[in-house]
Design the sequence.
């Protein structure tokens, strides 16, 4: 399992209206979520992890190697990202070429790249759209295409910025299954999301950001069990907990299934 370490990391945008400061943070869980209110700094951390932004001070290491020391192709094989807005990373004339372009950054074998592109397009359900222009796809399909471009490269660490936004339910289900497959294969999946039901039900670890700082890292059960913290950082508990708390049950439930299991054993 890849291990990401952030040490003494500081970053400010030029106007200095926002300051990120992360003293010591380790991401070593197979499925980690980063949550927090709008503007907390979640996407900024991802941009630092991918080298799109450069920290003012501090280090980022993956498996003990500083990210800055990796050659570009090695870096792509180490960390891959899908952005919140797919239009920020799609620019080729066809869906298939979009995936092949990603692959061309790490391999010059066109036949193998073409085969691999077909495989990942099938995986995200876009085989039929392979020859279409990405801008003729729906937003949901464009998001899945960005996922395919990263799956093609198959980095050790996958970063997803709001992957579920604008996806329909079957696509959400498919993506969740893909995340579990990746994590079972030894990859690390780190996802920014505002969907607390999803975090509670599917993730092994969660980091909470507020005003450029990481205020909590731990298991979802620990986070959602701390009602004061959840309220303080402006999160909503999973819907099942909102309901059970309203009915006077103070326990922590991560999903309807979790509730059912606990009540069967009573
Ligand atoms: N390019 C930029 N220049 C100046 N300020 C920026 C820039 N990008 C982001 N910011 C500011 O930095 C802060 C953190 O932004 P960031 O996008 O990291 O937050 P976030 O937690 O991902 O928010 P959201 O949940 O809305 O995506 C915000 O106040 C934002 O307005």
Sequence:
């Amino acid at each position: 399992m890849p291990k990401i370490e952030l040490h003494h990391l500081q970053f400010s945008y030029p106007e200095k209206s926002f300051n990120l400061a992360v003293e010591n943070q380790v991401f070593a869980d197979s499925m980690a979520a980063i949550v927090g209110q709008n503007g907390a700094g979640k996407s900024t951390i991802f941009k630092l992890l991918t080298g799109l932004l450069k920290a003012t001070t501090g280090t980022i290491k993956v498996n003990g190697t500083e990210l800055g020391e990796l050659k570009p192709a090695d870096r792509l094989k180490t960390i891959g990202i899908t952005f919140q807005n797919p239009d920020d990373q799609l620019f080729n004339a066809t869906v298939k070429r979009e995936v092949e372009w990603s692959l061309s950054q790490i391999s010059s074998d066109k036949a193998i790249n073409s085969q691999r592109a077909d495989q990942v397009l099938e995986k995200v359900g876009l085989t039929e759209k392979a020859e279409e222009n990405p801008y003729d796809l729906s937003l949901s399909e464009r998001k899945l295409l960005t996922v395919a471009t990263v799956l093609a490269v198959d980095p050790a660490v996958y970063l997803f910025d709001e992957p579920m936004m604008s996806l329909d339910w079957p696509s959400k289900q498919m993506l969740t299954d893909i995340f579990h497959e990746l994590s079972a294969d030894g990859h690390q999946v780190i996802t920014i999301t505002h969907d607390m039901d999803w975090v509670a039900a599917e993730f092994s670890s969660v980091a909470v950001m507020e005003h450029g700082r990481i205020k909590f890292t731990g298991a979802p059960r620990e986070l959602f069990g701390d009602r004061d913290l959840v309220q303080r950082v402006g999160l909503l508990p999973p819907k099942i907990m909102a309901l059970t708390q309203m009915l006077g049950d103070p326990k922590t439930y991560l999903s309807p299934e979790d509730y059912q299991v606990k009540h069967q054993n009573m």
Summary: The two ends are 36 Å apart (CA to CA). The mean pLDDT is 93. The chain has two domains: 1-63+157-266, 76-155.
